[in-house]
Amino acid sequence: MMLSLDFLAIPLLVAAALVFVSLLAGMFSARLGFSFLLVFLVAGMLLGEDGPGGVVFEDYKLAFWVGNVALAVILLDGGLRTHHSTFRTGLKPALWLATVGVLVSAAITGIAAHWLLGLSWQMALLLGAIVGSTDAAAVFSLLKSSGVRLNERVAATLEIESGMNDPMAVFLTLALIGWIVNAAHGWAPELAWWWPLWSLVLQFGWGVAIGLGAGWGFALLLRRLTLWARPSGGVRALLLTSAGLSVFAFTTWVGGSGFLAVYVFGVLVANRAPQSVTPALSAMDGFAWLSQAAMFLMLGLLVTPTEALRTLWPALGVAAVLMLVARPISVWLCLKPLRFTRHEMAFISWVGLRGAVPIVLAVFPVMAGIEGAKAYTNVALIVVLASLVLQGSTIPWSARRAGVALPDAADTARAREVFGDFEVPGHTRMADLCGFYGWPLTEPGHQSVAEWLTQALERPPVEGDHATLGHAELSVRSMEDGAIVRVGIRLLESPEATAD
């Protein structure tokens, strides 16, 4: 009797063929403006019990494990591609969005869920926490594949926020689960009022501390290894991935945010050992895509579309409130004091993408044994699909509409449209420029145009920023090391033409 290997061959054939077909379909869908991630999610649902595949999959622990590991790899890859210079403009707004922004979004969405889905206040706020944060996989993937070059302030804010908001989402989810479980057992929640705050401190504190410490040490080790052994790019990527997952696991084990730790680890390693990391980025990109494919396929397999359809319209209402009310209000509250323009805030509001994170977080209450928790995965699925279809497919259009898209270096026509027909060096004296064009004189007279523009903006300048002087618009055309080196000039018929 021969040993049958069908148990290996058939599942492997199905999984590999599914990924292959999904990738091919994703390439075509990307040309139409739809996300690769959407294709993987739909492919998983087609393989599931409601689709032609008919596979019944209810292993929440396995889905939770795969989802967390995949998110860790995606965040590591995103951190490795985040330049330290972007923190100059993106860290402060991203921190506000990753903390206060998530809290406000979760609260407003929870109120909507209470009225639309008829949930109790505790259950409704838990749903708000589950869908309240943006998704790193969706943001990193869709911004990269959109083909749009965003101004540094907007791009850095979106990327850093998505890499740092998971601790707040996890904290809110676990705190509300604890509240619901305690209430079900008749325990007084006020006896443990300090626990959520202490948990939040641990999440952020351990995440940042371990990420920084491990990143500094591994960057030093990687530089030494690359000088001594000269490993290939693939080996370096494996070293980075194994080290990053170790950081993620250890931080989670001690009670910190593994997601925050692995992101900070990636940022520090990439900026302290750039020459050692750069050859590994191509392989890391492959690891990240494999992680996204595995995660979205499994999450699609986990959900049951026919069950989700029972709450379709209320769930779409929750998604609409999240996208059109909760996210814009939270962005306005966090970014208006930092002098973001209304166009920048509108774009950041619209690109608050939801992806795998809400579905992964929806597994938490199921594993905690909360009655009716399966409904969270159904609502999270509809919210994610709505976000990927509506928001993910309109990134290029919305970026151009909001004026946050920068022209490519070779696109001279678009560059003239954005920066104007004329340009001068940043060190040009404003007195000379005003005299030449007949503009009102600025004070002090010896001030350079770069200094005047920085002062007029009242925030760290980035390429594409602009300010009005008389009947002209002056814009930041190029920068080096945080300083303005070239300024574009557009002559206007009237000052009203520049109104936001």
Automatic annotation (TrEMBL):
Keywords: Antiport, Cell membrane, Ion transport, Membrane, Transmembrane, Transmembrane helix, Transport. GO terms for molecular function: antiporter activity; flavin adenine dinucleotide binding. It is found in: Cell membrane. This is Cell volume regulation protein A. Its main location: membrane. The chain crosses the membrane at residues 12-42, 62-82, 94-117, 123-143, 168-188, 200-222, 286-306, 312-335, 347-370, 376-397. It is a multi-pass membrane protein. Residues 415-493 form the Transporter-associated domain. GO terms for cellular component: plasma membrane. InterPro entries: Cation/H_exchanger_TM, FAD-bd_PCMH-like_sf, FAD-bd_PCMH_sub2, Na+/solute_symporter_sf, Transptr-assoc_dom. GO terms for biological process: proton transmembrane transport. It comes from Tepidicella xavieri. Pfam families: CorC_HlyC, Na_H_Exchanger. The lineage of its organism: Bacteria, Pseudomonadati, Pseudomonadota, Betaproteobacteria, Burkholderiales.
